[in-house]
Amino acid sequence: MSARTRASAGLTAEDRTLVDALVAELGPRLLAYVRRVYANAQDAEDIVAETFCRAASNAAALRASGRRDLYLLTIARNLCRDGYRRQRPEAIADERLRGEPDRAAGPAAAAEEDERRRALRAAVEALPEHLREIVVLRLSGELRFEDIAELLQIPLGTALSRMHAAVERLREMLGCLHGH
User: How far apart are CA 132 and CA 140, in angstroms?
Assistant: First the structure.
């Protein structure tokens, strides 16, 4: 029996409809977030699936949640943190903050853009967890700072100051990397 089958076995038709709607609405956003936190594509998909299974298994809490997107992001975040702790740092692939260089601009421009992206990924990876998490939630989770503060259970000012600190560190690191 698959995880989805087990999770949906005890659900009412109304709960199944809710979970299916949330998968369609929030699944891509959750996957984008998890892919930026968790390097392996298959593992990221598994984490998103597990997120929805856990939410479905606690359908009453899901229904009662005023912010279902934050409820699901909290589950995904916890699953990522658990998995990330189990991974060895050297096993984490260089797939964060992905994006394809613009090949139409020519090979030299594409190579330069690819180098910039790699430098940015490495710099974000080098940030302390509390700063890296803010950057990833803001950029790939597409969350407002108010939502980030709520998700992380920190004051709004703390979320804003962490983002500012992260941006400053990234500027320093990337400036040093490129000799600026």
Answer: 12
Would you give the end-to-end CA distance of the chain in angstroms?
56
Q: Give residue 105's pLDDT band: very low, low, confident or very high (50, 70, 90).
A: low
pTM of this prediction?
0.61
Range of the domain at 72: 1-93
Determine the 3-state secondary structure of 154 from DSSP: coil
Closest CA to 138 of 127, 129, 147, 130: 147
Q: Are 69 and 29 in contact (CB under 8 A)?
A: yes
Q: Is 26 helix (H, G, I), strand (E, B) or coil?
A: helix
Place of tokens 């606690």: 58
User: How many domains is the chain built from?
Assistant: 2
Among 60, 93, 126, residue at a domain's last position: 93
Average pLDDT, rounded, for the chain? 79
Note whether 39 and 96 are within 8 A (CB).
yes
In this structure, the answer to whether residues 114 and 177 fall within a common structural domain is yes
The alpha carbon dihedral of 70, 76, 82, 83 has a sign of negative
Q: Are residues 127 and 70 in the same domain?
A: no
Coil, helix or strand at residue 163: helix
